Amino acid sequence: MAAFSLLPSAHIAPKPTLHFIKASTSDLPKTSPSPPSTKPQLPSHKPHHNIREEARLHNAATVTTNHPRFSAKYVPFTSITDPSSSDESYSLDEIVYRSQSGSLLDVQHDMSALKHFDGAYWRNLFDSRVGKTTWPFGSGVWSKKEWVLPEIDDDDIISAFEGNSNLFWAERYGKDFLGMNDLWVKHCGISHTGSFKDLGMTVLVSQVNRLRKMNKPVVGVGCASTGDTSAALSAYCAAAGIPSLVFLPANRISMAQLVQPIANGAFVLSIDTDFDGCMQLIREVTAELPIYLANSLNSLRLEGQKTAAIEILQQFDWEVPDWVIVPGGNLGNIYAFYKGFSMCKELGLVDKIPRLVCAQAANANPLYLYFKSGWKDFQPVKAKTTFASAIQIGDPVSIDRAVYALKHSNGIVEEAKEEELMDAMAQADSTGMFTCPHTGVALTALNKLRRSGVIGPTDRTVVVSTAHGLKFTHSKIDYHSKNIKDMACRLANPPVQVTADFGSVMDVLKKYLLSKSH
User: Fold this and answer.
1) Which side of the chain, N or C, has fewer Cβ within a 10 Å radius?
2) Is 289 helix (H, G, I), strand (E, B) or coil?
3) Cβ neighbours of residue 19 under 8 Å, at least 6 residues apart?
4) Does the residue 411 lie in any domain?
């Protein structure tokens, strides 16, 4: 990729002073209130009312004093693992990414307020919003608004009606290659920008939109990215009219991923380092400039990503699968899935959670090595090049979150070598899917666990596909052209060159049909 030149230095405003104010929570009603209507009566549609205006009119006419005030706040992640360790907390309207001790933060919901309604109520409410265009509930994320950002005004939400992605029954793949009859693939990549990152970015950019309206010191939003994060950030910022800044590792992402932030008007810096280097730089920059940090160090994104777990339960009519397999790089997503499942259990929507598997590329596998050591010795690694470029991360920000999720879900970590993940991707594609290399990592983990007998033939298993295969056509072309060094590409399906005459075409077709008749 051509280098991007920086403009002459411009005046930079002094670093804003951020005042951290401890969040307060209001007292809850003493008696159980009547639940709000699950099917609000909107005003009659008029041609000059768009869906956002209809929601505004409805909210203005709705009396909400008869139900508890749902709320959420930032708390140190260490207080999740050890509730007695700290009473530190922050309002979600503060710009803060770590606790005073340097711990990651977590969004903690007022579970006592949510528990005023039973599991059946929440199931019915969430189900009533699926497939609707009512703002903002047509989104798979915002249909769970009370569990995501309960206090944000609907008018501040920036949404592309993300989520509600296909849960694909992988019938042939499961039957022919794994001897399984209940294998599913959650196609999170069938989304606005082609990856699961949309689920978190709608939440983060919506909150930034709210902060800017509150005159908080936020000029733009920035991220380090291996591709998909920058695509999601730039799209949602463009929709909101908020400047986005992207730090990308030079020559380490696909052109399909690179073109997205450029097309959406992001200010893109191509930096001669890897993702971990970009991450270090963006953290330093956001500490000095009024740029809001959008990486998964920011826990807001995980609130959107956890809705994919809730959505899986919805799609199974609230029956819990046995296994969910998630590719892992920076490791926020495995924790997000755990959080979604555990909230559903705590609030009575389901009575258990699935076992989680985190799948890593062998070329970037610090969590796998930590797991194999019995959780005794975590060491970052220098990530090597992998076709699963979005998880090419050797020093994951969310390592503590991931370990917590895996320990509390009786989870497993597996790895995939480059040839294994590319073969798995090709094999899945041959049964009608069109998967990304990261899904190939997850499918390789499934293959290994199935062969070892850990996953049984009738276990209901969900593989999370995190990005659309169209973002990775170059790697697919190289595979099917057998143009990858030191890789057999044993499932390659290159086009057959034939001369333009009837006899030659017939000879080739007869040979092909004969090979398929056995």
Assistant:
1) C
2) coil
3) none
4) yes
